[in-house]
Amino acid sequence: METISILILDDEQRLRDEIAEFLLKKQFTVFKAAKPSEAFQTLTDESIDIAIIDIKLPEMDGLEVLKKLKKEHNYLEIIMISGHGDMQSVIDAMRLGATDYFPKPFRLTEIEHAIQRTQRFVDLSRKLHAYNKSISILTDKLYKNLGSPMIGKSDAMKEVVSMMQKVSQTDFTSVLILGESGTGKELVAHGIHLLSKRNKSVFHSVNCSAITDSLFESEFFGHTKGSFTGASDDRAGWFEIADKGTLFLDEIGDMPIGQQAKLLRALEEHKVSRVGAHKQISFDVRVIAASNQPLETMAEQKKFRGDLYHRLSTFVIQLPPLRERKEDLPLLTEYFLQQFAARMNRDVPKLTDETSFILQQYHFPGNIRELRNMLERAIILCDDHLIRPELLPIMQNKEQIVRAPEKSTNFDLAYAEKMMIEKALKFTKMNKSKAAKLLNITWQALDRKIKKHKIQA
Question: Among 9, 128, 152, 256, whose CB has the most other CB atoms within 10 angstroms?
Fold first, then answer.
């Protein structure tokens, strides 16, 4: 396990050294500072997990230091100490984000126990920090190359980004991306390519459902001049074009069985022969395939070659549908609205409360692509700066949506809250933990609300 780094900020040298000596014996990495400016510099130069801060300090008050650190280093866990054990300081410290508070004098073992209690939050912070760093790098690369960033803060998307990051570090592993249409499979494939060592070479995308049997070998393997009618010159195939780079095979499940056998042979041998030529050409390509169909089930039913499935599925990434990552909906909506408004040279419109409610209830069979198209249409039709429900195409099918209750003397926030909770419980098949996550509240808060609204759960 990675060693925890601790910063001690106290202007009293004896106490500072005493705490440091104790923690060093416990195998922690320790840094010391006598005043806030020294602490800020240490935080700039070093990776710190926990800060132990005295309330009374030169330059600025310890609570002000706490406030500043939580704003600029929100991943940092902070333990406050003070020679003045007044209750107001304790309340202020906890309100500003401190994890513990000890009045002087205290036993050093109390500090050790506080650090042990905090360690779980440190581990979570590290994971979150690593994810944010990964998503930042990935977003920058995708936006620079495609103009489309990776958007999402849900646990499901964090897992996807983590898997992309890990598999991108291998140079040859085949990747299979599964997910419904519109979930962003090509964006994920391109992201893996951009994060890998192959990012200076070609990313070549192929729609497997559009390739006829007569063109398969010519497209994948290339051909020589005169090898068939219309072959007016030599032409490289897709494996040659993507050499040293990535070949993305989209909708691989639609590829006919006969073509699958030829593809498998090329993947196994890492060599192809152009149509009309006898010389074999070696290639170095990472293959990423994608499908919106259950390939494993298709292989069991003999609708897809089992050997090709196993060749492609060394590393599988399953993309969640939008209905299973609704916490990402506001981020995606805001991004698309800003994008389209900028293209159309218009102010960014806002969703009415009812429009937001309807989008949260909608199941999005077309996923992110459907959301994108829906918002583009709405922003074109929008005459003022509000996107109202009637601008959404889904309003034409009343059975697919759940409207917010009409404003009346009976309408209040409690009614809407109750309806949302019932909807979440129904969607998660009465699983309170999943429903709480869907509603972005704690399990305990959900349980209280269920009792408050007398919901049968």
Answer: 9
pLDDT in tens, 296-338: 999 999 999 999 999 999 999 999 999 999 989 998 999 889 8
The amino acid sitting at 30 is V
Q: Is residue 133 exposed (0-12), middle (13-18) or buried (19+ Cβ within 10 Å)? A: exposed
In the chain, which segments carry CATH 3.40.50.300?
A: 150-318
CA distance 417 to 411: 11
Which pair of structure tokens corresponds to residue 363?
């199941």
For 406-457, CATH number out of 2.40.50.140, 1.10.10.60, 3.90.640.10, 3.40.50.2300 equals 1.10.10.60
pLDDT > 70? residue 143 = no
Instruction: State the pairing for strand pair 271-273/280-282.
Output: antiparallel
Q: What pTM was computed for the model? A: 0.61
Note whether 174 and 315 are within 8 A (CB): yes
Top CATH class, 150-318: alpha beta
Q: Phi first, then psi: give them for residue 250, nearest 5 degrees.
A: -85, 145
Q: What burial class does residue 199 get, using C-beta atoms within 10 Å of its C-beta: 0-12 exposed, 13-18 middle, 19+ buried? A: middle
